[in-house]
Amino acid sequence: MDLAVEMREITKVFKKVAANDKVNFNLKKGSIHGLLGENGAGKTTLMNCLYGLYQPESGKIFINGKNVRIDSPQKAMSLGVGMVHQHFMLVRPMTVVENIMLGLSSKRGPFLDTDRVERELLALSKRFNLNLEPKAKIWQLSVGEQQRVEILSALYRGAEILILDEPTAVLTPNEAQELFGILRMMRNDGKSVILISHKLEEILAIVDEVTVLRDGRLVGQAQVTAETTKRDLTSMMVGRDVLFNFKHETLKTGATKLMVNHLGARNDKGLPALKEVSFSISAGEILGFAGVDGNGQKELCEVLTGLRPTTSGEICLNGKELNRSSPKTFINEGIAHIPEDRHKTGLAMNMGIARNLILKNFSQSGFSSRGLLNFRAIKKNAERLMEEYAIKANGVHTKVKDLSGGNQQKVILARELSSKPEIIIANQPTRGLDIGATEYVRQKLLEESAKGAGVLLISADLEEILQLSDRIAVLYDGQIMGILGRNASVEEIGLLMAGVRTEEVEVC
Amino acid sequence: MLKENGIVKGFCHSVLPAVVTIALAFGVSALLLLFSSHSPIEAFSTLLTSAFGSPSRIAEVLIKTAPLMVMALGISVAFKSQVWNIGGDGQFTLGAIFAAFVALNLNLPGFIVLPVSFLAAFLGGALWGGLAGYLRAKFNANEVITTLMLNYVASYLLSWLIRYPMIDPDGHGFPQTSLLAQQYQLPIILSGTRLHVGILIALMIVLLGYLFWRSSLGFRIDLVGENEEAAKYCGINVSKTIILTMVISAGLCGVAGWGEVVGVQYRLLDNISSGYGNLAIVIALLGNLNPFGIAVSSFFFAALLVGGNTMQLMEGIPFSLITVIQGLVIVFVISRVVYTQWRDNVANRHFNRGAR
Amino acid sequence: MQTDILTVGLVSLLAGAIRMSIPILLPALGEIFTQRSGILNLGLEGIMLMGALAGFGGTFFTQNLWFGLLAAVITGITFSLIMGFLSITVKANQVIAGTALTILGTGLSTFLFREMFGIQKLPPQIESFAPLQIPFLSDIPFLGPVLFNHNIMVYLTLLLVVCSAFVLEKTPFGLQVRAVGENPRAADSKGINVTLVRYLCVMIGGAFAGLGGAFLSIGFMNTFLDGMVAGRGFIAVAVVIFARWNPYRALGAALLFGGASALQMRLQAIGVPIPHQFLLALPYVLTILVLLSVSKKAEFPAAYTLPYSRSER
Known about the structure:
Chain A has helices at 43-50, 73-78, 96-101, 114-127, 143-156, 173-188, 200-206, 230-238, 297-304, 327-332, 342-346, 353-357, 375-388, 405-417, 435-450, 462-468, 490-497; strands at 3-14, 17-28, 32-36, 58-63, 66-68, 81-84, 161-165, 192-197, 209-214, 217-223, 256-266, 272-282, 286-290, 312-317, 320-321, 335-338, 368-369, 372-373, 423-427, 454-458, 471-476, 479-485.
């Protein structure tokens, strides 16, 4: 079979670290090819080189057998390469057709040719079953629809090779199946697809071939057959066998710590984001929140930490009502928060580790006296926590932005958990971390719950939820669709995530 | 502000770039002078000798250093928390008005009136800047524009005050207040010159500034500037901190106005802030928002001001050349990053060669 | 008789409002492009001063107003490139970069004016743009003298309002500008050169600001004065936010400010018993009020003041 893409010995360096080190990659025409690896393995970097967003320091790229230099996405597109990024590259206030026309030359010279493009898009959308309305504004569309806009955009530009970066991360299991249908249709049409992923199931489910990267290097390329197992791929990906199941002790019911009743809140646009949310967390319990991103998770975390006002309902911690309290009160009452976005919320990136470790309590007596900071105590605190939480850095004053993602998350963990919290709110605590750091974070959460803290775990990763949680709540459109036991199946949860409430689902 | 660096490293990181920046700014202005057929060497040597040529000259430089130092320190507090206080001139003016009002109307001994007028000046500046801070915190009104607009309002307010309600009754209608009584003037510390005790007060304020950044309040302001989102997450009331920042920043600018009234002019007159506001921004940036850097930079720019006046008189070179130098200094200060970027790129390329 | 005086007064007030709105509207139009592309250019004041000087100097030395305008545009563009360099290439803080430009423009315009013309008792003067009465239309009672008795720069500016709106909404370039300001990464991935678009927008802003400055020196007055822009550059920025980045609304907002300036002058002329300092402060107070009324709910471009770099997230 002919090769659609051949990449030879690609090397790409960022800040003295090789993100890709002499990587080879071959894509056969008319196939779906999985690009597998942990976070940070260099998958996206490699594809960004193919799409012209990055220029590799060395290596060659062949498309349809011809050696090419791809110095811009435009060049890539002219060669028939399209890409759907993990974070959608869409301009939210603009319409579907405006987004797709963006960067294309108009047949009407200096004026936009909206009507013609609209007609052509409708036809194309029908052909691949994409079901899109060209006049809709992006912000009005669901995540799945936005993804289809990206695919439509690539197809409209004549893409013969389509790269999808972690396309299912934001989809419900159902939406993912729909997407796979579209991809198969494209393959039957003679197009080639590259699927970047770290999820083994979907690789096994849909791809014809797989290439595995680890630490920026090529580990291997293989046909995917019926015999290929998860374990084969994992050991390629990680370089060792991974424990898939943590040993989780059976539920030990302590006293109720956090009670949330009929909670309501609005999002930034003033629309209802949480509706009648009620649940409770007991000492030593981990309550998992499954759900597709953007269904109220962010607002829930903010309400439970005092960062967002409630419109109704009540929050009680150990019997004390906390509605309308300041964030400071929430912190003082023992609610720790591992925020979703480390960089934007959890850390002051330009400050050192020592300072980041006292962000929440620098004005307390241990670290300041008569208004002046006690630098010796601050340093001691940092040294102690860096050792306890195995934070790897040159010193206590190393700027947090110079740390790896795993170590950054450990700084947050150290700060939040060292305050001996009553309740830990962990929002996507392992997102973007490598497997080692992920295991560490999960272990720490289990330890804390064993010590008697209540944990509220929000994750888009169902596997994580299933592994850690004692009970699983599913958020959809700001409501709790149901709270299931820890033995719930992926199918059950998936239906609830999609907003389908079935009779069979047992609620406990 | 945890200082762990050695002196040499500190020099390379803070002093050297500042010197290079100034050299570049002077280089460009030299070209400008050449184009307009002046001799740069002559111009700059006049600048130098007229600033440091005699004790009274140096005294003049120190007189100008004091308000610049205090104002730049004030500006640095705001900039550190990413609040862009461009309204130093207006806050200086309000401080001067409040100080003059107290000194002209409070008939008590000097040792009472001087401190009271000091506080009044702080309050005056703080009100003006606090207003902008409040509007930013509550209405998200861009403080660059509000503080700047308040500059104009302050200057018209001053202009009205010294023509009507506060005019010197014996001044033949000249737009100024009457002269402050001797006991309300700051004492001279070097006889034969105009050098008053203000420079010592300014140095004390700089020391306080050093302590300020080691205090928990300083940390709070620093954190809000570093990452507002994170500050909120850590339970800090960001709106309150922004207003407080502006109050401190503007209050210091007001104090600079106090010094001008009780130490230099001994009265209120038009345009009393004489463009110190912009200069304070330049100084704060050149000094890297660090109290000691600010102290040195303000001395340097005060010398430029004194020298620039003489240069205009003797060489016929417009004083506005000094303003040009100020602008160039900012341009070069913020362009430093280009150099670091370039250095990183070179490093990357070296690494690649090694990798092959 | 009484009504006649009133009418005449009203006509001169409204015509004055239009005239006084031009030096705010011109820079505001350019700034709409700049800000839509994600860059806050607070250096308009400095660019306008340079434009005012260039317009005057160009006219003085060539004795041709059009060459004066050309010089102002070229100077405005050149000067704005400093802003472009600092905010796009260096990725510096845009407030500081703008402040640098303002200080630089203030100093340089004064310095060059002194060097070119020396210090004279009477400032050098030129013949400025004369009012152009549009045949027939200017004869319409009331509306004629209000709308159709202005110099050509006024008419051109109004034309530019329409052009700007059209370019932003109906052309591929306008689409690119909006995309770059909302989501530069997305624009980049679609093959749009973010850096180029931003540079172009800063330059458009510079050209318009240069024109705005020149209107003051050769359209409204007939000489250059130190600091003659008097904060209009900053008022223009406020107007852009008030107008929510729409050229037509910017026209309305600029007229509001023009009206305030014109009213202030008329009131002074009639001798209203309000201290004239208070009247002079009016436009600046108005600016603050206007900012308050919109800032909270204005939807700024999502990438406002954020530099773009491919390799950073």
